[in-house]
Every structure is written in C-alpha cells, then in structure tokens.
Amino acid sequence: MAYKLTNALAPLSDAYGRWRASQLGQITDHIEERLIVELVGPPAGLRILDVGCGDAALVVALSQRGARMTGVDVDPNMLAAGRARAAASGVAPDLMQGEIRALPFADSSFDIVVAVTVLCFVDDAAQAVREMTRVLRPGGRLVIGELGRWNLWAARRRMRGWLGSRVWQLATFRTVRELKDLVANAGLAITTIRGAVYYPPSAPIAALLARYDAWMGKRTTAGAAFLVVVGKKPA
Asked: Is residue 16 pLDDT above 80, yes or no?
C-alpha cells in the first residue's frame, strides 16, 4: 500500500468522526474547504478527482456546485461514510477504492485533481504527485493541500506522535519549498501558493481569529498550519 497509515486506518476513521463533531474541527474544516473550493474555481461541468477523499466532504461540496466528481480512497470505511454523506446530500459522485501510487484511471482523465492532507501519509510522495499528474489532461490543474511544518499545530501533532499516537508518528509535515519541489519535479508550472489556519489549535481562539484567516492567507504562508500549492500541466 502507498499509505503509511494502512495499519492505522481504523483509528483514523474514528478520529475523523470526533474531529468533525468538534467546534475546532468545524471551524478549521470550513476554512480549509473554502480555500480549496476557491482555488478550484468554478467547477460546473468539470471532471474533478479527489485523491484520498476520506468521508467525501469535499467531493460533496464540489458535486453540489456542478462538478462531475470522482473520489478515491484506500480505506473502505471512509468510502462507506462518504457514500452515506453523498446520499444524504442528494448527489451521486463516483467513489471507489484505490491507492495513490497506481490510480485506476487512464491518462488525461480529469480537468482538476485535488489531494488534501494526503501526501503527509504517503510513503513515496514524489511518485504520488507524478501519478496525479498523469491522470490530468493537458492544461489541467493539480491542487494540493498539506500540513505545514512550522506552526503550533505541527508541534502539537509531533508531540502526540512522541507520546504514542500511531497516526502522528507516521505523518510528514512539509514546507512550502518542499511542496513546490514535488509539484515542479512532476512537470507542473506552479500558479498559486496560499496558506490557511493561522490560529493555534484552540477552539475559543479559533472562534475569535478565524475571520482574519483569509486575509492572512493572501499575504503570507509563515505560520500557516495548512498550505496549498496549485500546479498547471503544460498544454
């Protein structure tokens, strides 16, 4: 399997549910999803692939905006949760099991490929980005959202890993430069770099500062817990 989390997927599924139910999770997910949707742009009619789609929150959000969505994930439990979410939302995206190093799609199948907090749990991130690039059409865009290295969130997650959390023991946090190199080395031209989630991992502080997050993200990536890099495939 490509994912370092293969043996830790059940805890991850449980953690997703707890995170979605928390105030901090709801604030943070909203900020991250808003940024990804903004950088995807008008999605109506586009063929979009969400790699590592999890419980399909982003798949559903883009489907409701008219995108022709496909989601792929290695974890059948997450896919089951995603199908339930899609059904409850009245959309019918294609959700299938697969792994990022060998995506089950032909070359040039999608207008946009999105991968959010996936590469941090992949053994060979360079191969994963090359594979996502392969399934992009010429002129298509890759939107990668990842966990930044230098921020309070990453510090807390590393500490949890040291204390025994299997999930955070396996995670890799990256800098903007590392993400840019992954995208550029796959042959894509970098068009956008943005940050998000500048507040510490505290629900009360997040509630106070979330309104300023988009303003910060347009000015600097320093201190951002969430980094987004967009690359365009040559036409």
From this structure: no
